[in-house]
Amino acid sequence: MVARVRCWIATGAVLAAALLTLPQAAAADQRSWFSRAVPMRLMALGDSLSNADLARLLDAGGYRFAIVGRSRGRASRDYVIRSFSPDPAPQLYGVVTRAAIERYDPDVILLMAGTNDLLRVAERKPGYTLSNVVEGMNALLAEIFYLRPHANVIVAGAVDGPRLLACDVVDFDGIDDENGCGKSARPSLTTLVAAYAARDFHVVLAGGMSIAVPRDKAHFPDGVHPSGRGSSQALARVWMDAIAHETTDDTLAAGR
């Protein structure tokens, strides 16, 4: 396992370094991200995402859209690409991401990954560190933009469940919190997204995902998955707020 993780990190580092040789992505495309009048294809990639509820919010907001990459699994997962089984993110990096992007050609990618890795950090599994988890996301973003330099990507942090270490979630997201963790100077999703955005890649951070759902048994029955009452709607609202922020016409009124 340790060897595989090291190989994944090394491969991702090579791809991320290669990405720096690409031209700044937005130089040939200055279009706005979203307009209700223009159809968009959204694809969820990573952790289990609540896109059935997101679809209802998009409908209510008057957006024209299609959510692609639907699985044939249970109804609650109809809008989710099951990108990995209970195993680390290396299953997501590589063939799964490449095949999904090439098959569905999404306009917008909703990317939320890292929970499984953060579980292993909390369990002190060999080879798993916060730095490696962030570098894994770097490799994943590099792969996405290597395949689609003009892709629109919305990145969300991990949802803070009881089985994760609260300060790990804070450090992974790169935010200050109210629990005494403070703000880490290490690389995080915040610094990672800022670095890509500085090179004019279309990527933003969906703020507030980590605190969207209360960290308790009622909302996390298994300690990991936010499946309690109102949880999926709360996650969908975080995605919707990020989409509305990048929409060029009137501010989304639905649900406000």
Quick summary:
This protein is α/β, with parallel strands linked by helices and 256 residues long. The chain has helices at 2-19, 51-60, 92-104, 115-122, 130-147, 166-173, 189-198, 231-245, and strands at residues 40-46, 65-68, 108-112, 152-156, 202-206.
Structural overview:
With 256 residues, the protein is of the alpha/beta class. It has one domain: Rossmann fold, CATH 3.40.50.1110. The chain contains eight helices and five strands. The chain has helices at 2-19, 51-60, 92-104, 115-122, 130-147, 166-173, 189-198, 231-245; strands at 40-46, 65-68, 108-112, 152-156, 202-206. It has a five-stranded parallel beta sheet, sandwiched between helices. Helix 2 (51-60) links the parallel strand 1 (40-46) and strand 2 (65-68). The chain is globular, with a radius of gyration of 17 Å. It starts with a helix and ends in an 11-residue tail after the last helix.
